[in-house]
Design a protein that fits this description.
Helices cover 73% and strands 0% of the residues. By secondary structure, it is mainly α. The chain has four domains: 7-101, MazG-like (Helix Hairpins), CATH 1.10.287.1080; 109-143; 144-222, Helix Hairpins (Orthogonal Bundle); 226-276, no CATH class. Helix 4 packs antiparallel against helix 5 (65-88) and helix 12 (224-248) crosses helix 13 (258-276). Belongs to the nucleoside triphosphate pyrophosphohydrolase family. Residues 40-113, 179-239 form the NTP pyrophosphohydrolase MazG-like domain. GO terms for molecular function: ATP diphosphatase activity.
C-alpha cells in the first residue's frame, strides 16, 4: 500500500530531517515522483556522492562558510537518496543508517562514552582508534591487513590508506630518506621506460612513482590530496598572473612564446614573494 504524501511536512520551513526524508520519498514515488529520480540506482548516484564530498572540501578550502551550509546539505541529500533506495529494496532505512553510525561512534570513543580515561594524547587516541577498527574488521571476517580499504576512493587517498595499513604490520621504510632514495630509483626506471618500453609499461612505472610519492607524503605528515589541491591553486593563480601581464602588453598566451611566458612566470613569482615579504 502506497503511503500518502505529507504535503504539509514537505512545505514546512522548519521540517528538518523528516521533511528531507519525505521530499526524497515523494521524488522516488513511482506514480507521482520525478522521472529522473525514479530511474536512479546506487551506481548512478555514487558519482554525484563523490562530487558533493569534493565540493564540501572545496568550500572549506576557500573558507566560504555560507557556501559550506549548502554543500553540506547537498552531501546529506546523497545519504538520504541512497537510504531511500535501500529502503525500497528492503535493505535498511535512514534511521538504521543513523543508528549504525551512533553505535560506531559510541564504541570508538570509550574515553568519552565509557569508563576509559580521557587523559591521553591525540596520537594515543589515533592508535586506540586503529585498534578498535582492526577489531571491527576482524568481526567482519576481514583477515588481511589491507582488507576493507574502499576501492572507490580517489587513487592518491587510497594509496596512503593502503600504506598506513601495511605500516601497522611492519611493512614500511624506516624513514623519509629511504623513501626519497626509492623515488630516485623509480624516477630512473620511468626515464628508461620512456625510451625503451611500451606505453602500458610506462604507465606502470609512472604509477609506481606516484605510489612512492604518496608514501613520502605519509612519512612527512603531509596530506597529499590537500597538497596537490594547493599546488593546483598556486598554478592557477600564477598562470592568471602571466595572462594579466600579457594583457598589459596587448597580447594573449597563444600570441606569446614559451620563453616570454616563462619569464613572466618568474616575474609573477617575484611579485608574490614581494607581497609575502
Amino acid at each position: 500500500m502506497t503511503k500518502t504524501r505529507d504535503d504539509a511536512l514537505i512545505h514546512s520551513p522548519n521540517g528538518g530531517i523528516p521533511r528531507l526524508l519525505e521530499i526524497m520519498r515523494a521524488l522516488r514515488d513511482p506514480d507521482s515522483g520525478c522521472p529522473w529520480d525514479i530511474e536512479q540506482t546506487f551506481a548512478t548516484i555514487a558519482p554525484y556522492t563523490i562530487e558533493e564530498a569534493y565540493e564540501v572540501a572545496d568550500a572549506i578550502e576557500r573558507e566560504e562558510w555560507g557556501e559550506l551550509k549548502g554543500e553540506l546539505g547537498d552531501l546529506l541529500f546523497q545519504s538520504v537518496f541512497h537510504a531511500q533506495m535501500a529502503e525500497e529494496a528492503g535493505l535498511f532505512t535512514f534511521d538504521q543508517v543513523a543508528d549504525t553510525m551512533s553505535d560506531k561512534m559510541v564504541a570508538r570513543h570509550p574515553h568519552v562514552f565509557g569508563d576509559e580515561s580521557r587523559d591521553k594524547s591525540a596520537d594515543q587516541q589515533v592508535n586506540d582508534w586503529e585498534t578498535i577498527k582492526a577489531a571491527e574488521r576482524a568481526g567482519k571476517e576481514q583477515k588481511g591487513a589491507l582488507d576493507g580499504v574502499a576501492v572507490g576512493l580517489p587513487a592518491l587517498l587510497r594509496a596512503v590508506k593502503l600504506q598506513k595499513r601495511a605500516a601497522r604490520v611492519g611493512f614500511d621504510w624506516p624513514d623519509a630518506g629511504s623513501v626519497i632514495d626509492k623515488i630516485v630509483e623509480e624516477s630512473q626506471e620511468l626515464v628508461e621506460a620512456r625510451d625503451t618500453l611500451t606505453q602500458v609499461e610506462v604507465e606502470e612505472e609512472f604509477g609506481d612513482l606516484l605510489f612512492v610519492m604518496a608514501n613520502l607524503a605519509r612519512h612527512l605528515n603531509v596530506e597529499p590530496e590537500a597538497a596537490l589541491r594547493a599546488a593546483n591553486n598556486k598554478f592557477i593563480r600564477r598562470f592568471e598572473g602571466v595572462e594579466a601581464k600579457l594583457q598589459e602588453l596587448g597580447k594573449r598566451p597563444e600570441d606569446s612564446t614559451l620563453e616570454e611566458m616563462d619569464a613572466l612566470w618568474d616575474a609573477v613569482k617575484r611579485d608574490e614573494r614581494g607581497i609575502a615579504g
